[in-house]
Amino acid sequence: MTDCVIIGSGMAGISAALTLKAQGVSFLLIGNPDLSMKIGKAEKITNYPAFCEGSGEALRNLLKRQLRENGIEVKAGRAVGVYAGKNFVSVQTDRDEWIEAKSAILACGVGTAVQAEGESEFLGRGVSYCATCDGALYKGKTIVAAAGSSAFEKEAEMLENFAGKFYFVPLYKNCTFQPKKSGTEIFTDGLVRIEGGLRAERAVFKNRTVTADGIFLLKDSVPLSAVCGGLKTDGRHVITDRSMHTNLKGVFAAGDCTGRPYQYAKAAGEGNVAAHSVTEYLRDSEHGEAKVAAESEKMP
Amino acid sequence: MTDCVIIGSGMAGISAALTLKAQGVSFLLIGNPDLSMKIGKAEKITNYPAFCEGSGEALRNLLKRQLRENGIEVKAGRAVGVYAGKNFVSVQTDRDEWIEAKSAILACGVGTAVQAEGESEFLGRGVSYCATCDGALYKGKTIVAAAGSSAFEKEAEMLENFAGKFYFVPLYKNCTFQPKKSGTEIFTDGLVRIEGGLRAERAVFKNRTVTADGIFLLKDSVPLSAVCGGLKTDGRHVITDRSMHTNLKGVFAAGDCTGRPYQYAKAAGEGNVAAHSVTEYLRDSEHGEAKVAAESEKMP
Prior knowledge:
Two copies of one chain form a homodimer. Chain A is an alpha/beta fold.
């Protein structure tokens, strides 16, 4: 079992990984091997200390180089479930893998692109974040897919393939998705609300309402309260203390998901602090276990 | 009056300055124009995200370049007094200048080199951090000066000049201080304790005790509780909330002075957060003042 699973390949997750690596703590970093889509988008970065090269793309290149030089790989995957137990944390990914670790760092950013009322309520009941996991459930049925960026067009293609009737809603500019079926509709209307009874039944957009069997919200960052049961949040943000510990044992958080400001330096700093806290937590746990073992031995 | 005074030219102070600059907030950054002496000392840095060049010296060069490119100057000076009033913060420097600002960010690191029991107790009563401020008080008297780095040798020369009897205690390697007076003694013994009655009278080292009229502790970072009255600290660290606000109105803190881990990324992150909090604080204050003004106008 690995010591720590880091969820998210943005600045916070990378910072945590670099620090854990330096401390010799084993970990898995899951996210986008090409790094978080948010990195690289900035046109000009002036306030990340010691970064003088300007563009987000240059920042991404430096981070990729640094990960490579430190022998750190990003394992492809998005967390769709995080379960904090008494002694370990279990993470389910959109590849339907399960990762068990002694601790976890949530560094999954904050969803900005797709966000709808009713989303958490109907998650797992007609609402899904993952075409690979759940697409096949809606074979021949009506599917709505709202995507936060062009990176999800592959998933949209997969969903169109499964669907009887497919609505694709790109919530970004320069959509390159090409419908393969004649019944497919594309429109760029803001998603407002998901409605239904026991299951999601309708996606309500600004200018229309669509009845659907499955509603897919394809985005980089998902509301953590939805994927991680029992996690204390304040709206869209995870609540942590100054050591980046959440309310769940062995679960830490860093970066945009803990709140504003949404800044590279803040995310890097929190990732670093979370990694140090993980190291301390592991040490204390081991002492704790060793102590318990030592005391057990004393028993008659 | 400037909007903010940033105390300290280490990673936290620089990060705060870059962010305030980007936000168009006026500020003064005081510290060492050559940047904090701690930056540049690291042989190899692997865990500061996007920094691949390795050495502390390379980091310092990038930071200096970035400050230059952003038109940010470091004003030479060390804070020896920070006074938080109702509507502004007043900072006294070792050049005997007074800086008034609407807010302050304490980013002065944490003193590691010189630290003695009794230091805070006797500060201003025989103990001083500043040769320029207080050297002349001890003309013809016995002076002890313990220095945390070679950067303070100039101050030591000044003190030797004032002193009747001078003891110099370099707490670093490769001392280049040359005594100018025959009675001057140099020894490299760890300072343990300062003793006295109403005033400091003796400096107790590991292997000897020296009776002195003035004891100078020459170091980059001073205990903030000593220079900033009323500031809540936990031992050597300032207590802040997640927005880096201290218990004093308009006073924020960032970097090593807020506690471990003592890391570049953590300091950069906190500097960034403190700067955002300052911006918010200034906006709220202005709203606050505007609101009060508007309400006064309504009064008969």
